[in-house]
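Just scan this pair:

***
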Amino acid sequence: LTQRHATYRTHQSGGRVYHIFSRKIFNGIGRDDLRTRRKHELEYVKTRMVTLDFILSNLHCDYLETEAEKVPFFESRLKLSRGPLPARIYSSKVSGSHTVRYFVDRFPLFVKDCSGASPVVVFTYIDAGAATLQGFVTHLEVYRGLLRSLPQFEFIYVAPTDRFFKRAESEFSRTVLGRVPVPSSEQLLRYFQVRKRWEAGERVAAADVVLLNGAKRERTDKSIESQYSQWVAGRIKDADICCSVPQPEPRINGRFSTRKCGDSLSVFYRSGEDRGESDADISSGAFSRTFSPEVSPQ
């Protein structure tokens, strides 16, 4: 602080969050190009703090830290082209040139059995407390090509609470594995009823809007659309509604898990303050399910 290599901000708990920005320090560790030196919004800061919590609790892992480490690993070790790698194009307003950068999210990525014949890459997604799963869904869509190109992998969804764990698992199954959950007759009828009210211009509760948005992505089978048209026209009754969507054969061998992590976020809150979650929600824990050609999702 006295050398002006860092600054800090005091938060409601009385604790401080420090920001090290000195180019001298980042040069000293060979990381002068890291965006961490710059000023960032609070959401970015929280995400980096949860990321640090995760890494500190998994120091034994063999991490691939930078783009310069990750791209050669997938190209040379796993024999993949750059095509499926998650990329972002940056354009220069001055020169008009374009630069392609890979793995810009900088979420922890490490390798199990790195020296073996079949190394397993472990991907993570850090959710520091987002209001929705949209960011996670977008992330999966960006990574889908790479994940589907690997013979096996693991994916960990990391968050300070478990409120989105089940939905994150469902989104992973749908987006990456291509599996669409088959709704029950009761769920399908509920969807029909809400959709009919919506299309008629009637007022629909916020929870029902969420239901419609989810169904729009998942229930695209032609048989469902046909039943809906017949049901609206009165040609079939409620009891006749059913769904039998054939499930595609699993092709991806991936293990999805969730992890509670984020003790450091307590610095942003007063002691005993109600944050809409229990103390247990901040503790460390995990559960996982395996998806492979031999195992079906629960």
